[in-house]
Amino acid sequence: MNLKETYKDADQKLNVVNLCNPVSSLTFAIQDHLKPKNHLIVPNSRSAFNIWEKLKDTDPVCSDFTLSKYYSASVNNNFLNLPIADGYVDPQAQPDKKVNDTLLVLGNFRGTGNQVLFRKLLYFNTLGVCFFAFGNVKMLGWMYCKDVCKYIAPIGDAKRRNNTILGEIYSDIKVIAYEEPEKKVERYFQNLPGATKLTGYRLSKRLAPPNEAICLVEFQSNQNKYDMDYPEVVHFIVKKLYMLKSSPVAHCLAWLGPGAQEYFASKLPQELLNKHNNDLTIEEILHITQLYMDWPFKPDLNVELYADHNITVYNMDEER
Questions:
Q1: Above pLDDT 70, what percent of the chain?
Q2: What is the pLDDT of residue 24?
Q3: Dihedral sign for Cα atoms in the order 142, 148, 151, 153
Q4: What is the pLDDT of residue 303?
Q5: Strands (E), 110-235
Q6: CA 223/CA 287 separation, integer angstroms
Q7: Domains in the chain, please, with CATH?
Q8: Helix crossing, 162-170 with 112-127: angle to 10°?
Q9: Cβ atoms of 21 and 106 closer than 8 Å
Q10: What is the DSSP letter of 185?
Q11: Do the beta carbons of residue 121 and residue 111 sit within 8 Å?
């Protein structure tokens, strides 16, 4: 992972947005290594805001950080509008570059609440909104080893569900470094290309509860990976197909609407219908999506697809 090669002229154009990160080595390493033009800290609580505010006032190393007034829990599809308007960051759209070199997102995705944020960002990437409206944005973050499995599970694995599929369709997710994982998930970390196993000093003593191994994950947005005309419908299809764990595709298709089983039975080969959902390839899922769009009696999806799921933005200046 050669970040200096990826983010050339970082001091002139790179904006780092740091989501709900504690005071960790990753934050300072990125700042020291890349020396970005802007580095915005988005705390996840009032107490975290107070800690960073004190550090900025007392530690010269933190003087180059900008502290956001908004919680990371406020991240919604329009979240960057506020920091851009405030002059904190100025990313540029780069849809044709392999990696957008004007925006890098850092995150702490350890624990239940922060996993919710990661899944939200995964969904935003499928729609090309929020950070991902600028195209091909890279995200780096800490995650528990037991949690990352659902994003890297191979075909046929029980953990291969909607998170895995959406990650594969719209991005490239890989583990950069990891501690010795728990026995029940260690198979996911065998023969990972390019991943470094951390030995000796155990990071989780400082960053995680005892016996919780952590890893550094790279999420590279790649919205043009597959040729698709209906990204919102793809998300709907994936959600419905994986409502049940390791179930035959023929049964899962019933969730797509009345008459769906009969319709798809006339369009898909029996071999595919007999597969379990965790055995489906991305190409097969996209084929099912296209058949769904061709179905003359498909249900109206407007309410499910376009309901407003935005989250209120909480301004720390207004907190009581």
A1: 90
A2: 76
A3: positive
A4: 65
A5: 138-144, 171-178, 196-197, 214-221
A6: 18
A7: 9-221 (3.40.50.150), 231-306 (1.10.8.100)
A8: 40
A9: yes
A10: G
A11: no
